[in-house]
Amino acid sequence: MDELQEQVRRQLYRFQDLADQMKAVRGRETSEDGAVMAEVDGIGALTDLQFSSAVSRMTPGEFEQAVVSTAAQAARRAFERRAEIVNRFNEEVAG
Questions:
Q1: Residue 36 burial class via C-beta count within 10 angstroms: exposed 0-12, middle 13-18, buried 19 and up
Q2: In order of start, what are the domains of the chain with their CATH numbers?
Q3: How confident is the model over 4-25, as a mean pLDDT?
Q4: pLDDT tens figures, 41-84
Q5: CA angle (69, 71, 76) in 5-degree steps
Q6: What pLDDT band is residue 34 in, cutting at 50, 70 and 90?
Q7: Is 80 in a helix, a strand, or coil?
Q8: Number of helices (H), then strands (E), in the chain
Q9: Could you give the 3-state DSSP secondary structure of residue 70?
Q10: What sign for the dihedral angle of Cα 15, 21, 24, 26?
């Protein structure tokens, strides 16, 4: 019975670690020209958006494109990080 309790306790700690790691996931990207920096959390929600003075030289369309593409790349980075965490967790649980 003690062994079973310890096994359950270890799995509970693994799940808690997984949850903590998932909460901490961030993706950050800066546009090639440095005009836009976007950061998103592990579910792709925007957590930070910063602009340099370079945006003043952009047309509205260029500005829109820079924001959208930079935020999308930040989200891809965050999702890649989440996938790495989940894959590592699955390997640990299976092993």
A1: buried
A2: 2-94 (3.30.1310.10)
A3: 91
A4: 999 999 999 999 999 999 999 999 999 999 999 999 999 999 99
A5: 95
A6: very high
A7: helix
A8: 2, 3
A9: helix
A10: negative
Collapsing DSSP to helix, strand or coil, 58 comes out as: coil
The C-alpha atoms of residue 58 and residue 28 are separated, in whole angstroms, by 22
CA distance 25 to 79: 9
> Which single residue is written with the structure tokens 């999308």?
72
CA distance 49 to 67: 9
Amino acid at 12: L
What does each C-alpha distance from 19 to 9, 14, 29, 42, 58 come to in angstroms? 15, 9, 24, 11, 40
Q: Are 14 and 93 in contact (CB under 8 A)?
A: yes
Question: Cα(51)–Cα(60) distance, rounded to whole angstroms?
Answer: 14
